[in-house]
Inverse folding.
C-alpha cells in the first residue's frame, strides 16, 4: 500500500470480544475507494461482529481501524458515523413507528442543508419506491422496502465507506438484484463498499474481491474470480 | 347537569394525569426503565411550591419553570452519574435500575420529610370558580388541568415534529439505528431522563394547587402513573392520554357517589384488573 494514498478502509490486526468471548482474531483487510469487497462466511463466522467493530458498536481489544488514513478505533459509534462510515446493520434496525421521510431526515441530520437535499434526491432516485412511501411508517413496509430504507438511511449520512450486513437476508432474488444494482452508482461516487454475505454466489457476484472468514479469522482472500474457482471456499468454509 | 359537571371535573383531572404519566412514559420509552422515584420528584416539587407560595405570597405558578429547569438538571446529572454507570456495568440492568430508583425514591421522601415534615398541605390559591352555562369550573383545577395538558401537548409536538424530538424517538425505537445516523444516544438518554424528571416536577407544582400532599404520597403518584401507562400501553403516547382521561373521569364519578376513599382505591383496583385481564399490557408495544 502506497503511503500517499491510504485505503478508504484499512483494518489491521483487530482482535475483538463480545463480553468475555473473543470473537475476532487478528483480522486484517483493506477496501479502496470505489471498490466493492465481500466478507464471506458461514453462520457464526464473525461477519456481523467485524462490521459492528468497524462501526464502533463494539470496541476492539487490539489492532487499528483507519478511515482514509485516520485511526477511528475506540471512537464512540456516533462519531464514527459522522466521520464517514455508513452502517446498514444486521436486522436493519429501522425505527418502526417513524416514517420513511423521518428516516431520511435523521440520516441526513449532520450534513449541511444543501448537501442533505442533494443526498435525498439521489437516494430517492435510486430507490423510487421509497418516494411513494415517504409518509408511511417503516414498520408497515415490506421486507424489500425496509432493506432499501436501511440502505437509504445509511447513504443519507454521506458515507465514504458503506458497511452492509447481509442485505439479501429474507429477500426474493429479484429484490436482491435491484438492491445490488445500486452498488455501481455508489462506487462511481467513490464510496467504498464492504458487504457481509453468507451466500457465496451473491457475494462474489457483487464484489471485486472477497475475504473468507471462519471462526473469527480471515482464512482466504482474493479476487472474486480466484475465489469462485477455488473449491476450498465452498467445500470447507461455506459448507454446502 | 350533574353528570356534565362530573365530566368536566374528570377531564380537568385527566389533563393533570396526562402530565404525571407522560413524564414517566418518556423515561420508560427511551431508557427501558421504570423510574420508581417518579412520585418522589412530584412531591418534592409540590412541597417546595407550597413552601415558596406560603413564604413569598406569590402565585405557585411562578415555581413552574424553575422547578422544571432545576429538577430537569438534577435528573440529567442523576442519569449520567448514577443510572448510566449502573446500566453499563450490570448484567440485569433492568433489575438494578429498579433498585436504584427505588432507593432514590426513599432519599427524596426522606429529604422532603426533613425539610417540611409529614403533614398534608395544600396551597390556598384560587379558591374561586368560574361559572359557564350552569357549569362550575373550579379555578385551581381548571388552571392546573389546562396547564398540564398544554405542557403534555408541547411534549408531543416536540417529539413528533422536530428533529431533536424525532432523534429521541429514534433512539428509543432502535439505539443501534440511531447510532448509525450519527445520533449521540448516550446524550439522548441523559436528555430524556432530565426532561422526564423536569416534567414530573412541573406536575408536582400543578398537583399541589389542586390536592393536599405529604412526602409519603410519593408512592401513590408513582403507582398512579404506572397504572395509567399500563392501561394506555407502555411507550404509547396517545394511549396514555386516553387512559388519563378515563381515570380522571372514573375518579370524578366514583368520588362523588362513593366518597374520597373510592376515589383513592380506584387506581389500585384498575391496576389489578389490568394485570388479571391484560397481562400482555406490561410488555412494551413494538
Ligand atoms: N452478544 C453475543 N454474545 C455471545 N456470543 C456472541 C454475541 N454476538 C456474537 N456472538 C458469537 O460470535 C460468533 C460470531 O457471530 P457473528 O454474529 O459475528 O457471526 P456472523 O458471521 O454474522 O453470522 P450470521 O451469518 O449468522 O449472521 C458466533 O459464534 C456468535 O455466537
Ligand atoms: Mg451476521
Amino acid at each position: 500500500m502506497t503511503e500517499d494514498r491510504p485505503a478508504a478502509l484499512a483494518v489491521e490486526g483487530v482482535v475483538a470480544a463480545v463480553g468475555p468471548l473473543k470473537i475476532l482474531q487478528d483480522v486484517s483487510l483493506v477496501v479502496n475507494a470505489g471498490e466493492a469487497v465481500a466478507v464471506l462466511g458461514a453462520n457464526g463466522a464473525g461477519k456481523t461482529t467485524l462490521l459492528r467493530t468497524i462501526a464502533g458498536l463494539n470496541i476492539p481489544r487490539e489492532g487499528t481501524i483507519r478511515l482514509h488514513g485516520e485511526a477511528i478505533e475506540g471512537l464512540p459509534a456516533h462519531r464514527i458515523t459522522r466521520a464517514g462510515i455508513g452502517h446498514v446493520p444486521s436486522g436493519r434496525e429501522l425505527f418502526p413507528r417513524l416514517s420513511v421521510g423521518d428516516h431520511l431526515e435523521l440520516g441526513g441530520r449532520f450534513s449541511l442543508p444543501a448537501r442533505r437535499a442533494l443526498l435525498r434526491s439521489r437516494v430517492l432516485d435510486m430507490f423510487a419506491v421509497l418516494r411513494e412511501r415517504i409518509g408511511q411508517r417503516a414498520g408497515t413496509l415490506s421486507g424489500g422496502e425496509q432493506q432499501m430504507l436501511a440502505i437509504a438511511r445509511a447513504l443519507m449520512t454521506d458515507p465514504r465507506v458503506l458497511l452492509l450486513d447481509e442485505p439479501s437476508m429474507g429477500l426474493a432474488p429479484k429484490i436482491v438484484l435491484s438492491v445490488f444494482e445500486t452498488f455501481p452508482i455508489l462506487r462511481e461516487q467513490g464510496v467504498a463498499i464492504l458487504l457481509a454475505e453468507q451466500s457465496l454466489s451473491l457475494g462474489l457476484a457483487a464484489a471485486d474481491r472477497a475475504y473468507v472468514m471462519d471462526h473469527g479469522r480471515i482464512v482466504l482472500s482474493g479476487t472474486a474470480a480466484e475465489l469462485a474457482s477455488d473449491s476450498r471456499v465452498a467445500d470447507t468454509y461455506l459448507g454446502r | 347537569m350533574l353528570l356534565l359537571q362530573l365530566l368536566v371535573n374528570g377531564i380537568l383531572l385527566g389533563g393533570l394525569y396526562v402530565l404525571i404519566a407522560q413524564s414517566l412514559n418518556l423515561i420508560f420509552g427511551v431508557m427501558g426503565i421504570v423510574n420508581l422515584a417518579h412520585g418522589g420528584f412530584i412531591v418534592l416539587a409540590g412541597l417546595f411550591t407550597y413552601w415558596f407560595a406560603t413564604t413569598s405570597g406569590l402565585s405557585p405558578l411562578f415555581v413552574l419553570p424553575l422547578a422544571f429547569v432545576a429538577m430537569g438538571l438534577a435528573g440529567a446529572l442523576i442519569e449520567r452519574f448514577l443510572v448510566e454507570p449502573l446500566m453499563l456495568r450490570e448484567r440485569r440492568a433492568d433489575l438494578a435500575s429498579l433498585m436504584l430508583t427505588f432507593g432514590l425514591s426513599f432519599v427524596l421522601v426522606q429529604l422532603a420529610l426533613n425539610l417540611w415534615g409529614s403533614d398534608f398541605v395544600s396551597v390556598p390559591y384560587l379558591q374561586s370558580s368560574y361559572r359557564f352555562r350552569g357549569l362550575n369550573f373550579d379555578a385551581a383545577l381548571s388552571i392546573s388541568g389546562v396547564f398540564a395538558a398544554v405542557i403534555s401537548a408541547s411534549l408531543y409536538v416536540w417529539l413528533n415534529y422536530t428533529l431533536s424530538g424525532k432523534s429521541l424517538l429514534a433512539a428509543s425505537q432502535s439505539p443501534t439505528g440511531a447510532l448509525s445516523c450519527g445520533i449521540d444516544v448516550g446524550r439522548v438518554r441523559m436528555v430524556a431522563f432530565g426532561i422526564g424528571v423536569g416534567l414530573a416536577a412541573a406536575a408536582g407544582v400543578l398537583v399541589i394547587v389542586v390536592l393536599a400532599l405529604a412526602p409519603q404520597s410519593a408512592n401513590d403518584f408513582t403507582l398512579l402513573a404506572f397504572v395509567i401507562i399500563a392501561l394506555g400501553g407502555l411507550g404509547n403516547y396517545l394511549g396514555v392520554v386516553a387512559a388519563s382521561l378515563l381515570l380522571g373521569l372514573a375518579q370524578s364519578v366514583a368520588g362523588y357517589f362513593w366518597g374520597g376513599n373510592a376515589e383513592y382505591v380506584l387506581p389500585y383496583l384498575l391496576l389489578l384488573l389490568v394485570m388479571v385481564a391484560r397481562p400482555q399490557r406490561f410488555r412494551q408495544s413494538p
User: Anything to note?
Assistant: The mean pLDDT of chain A is 92. Chain A touches chain B through 30 residues (CB under 8 Å). The first helix of chain A runs from residue 47 to 54.
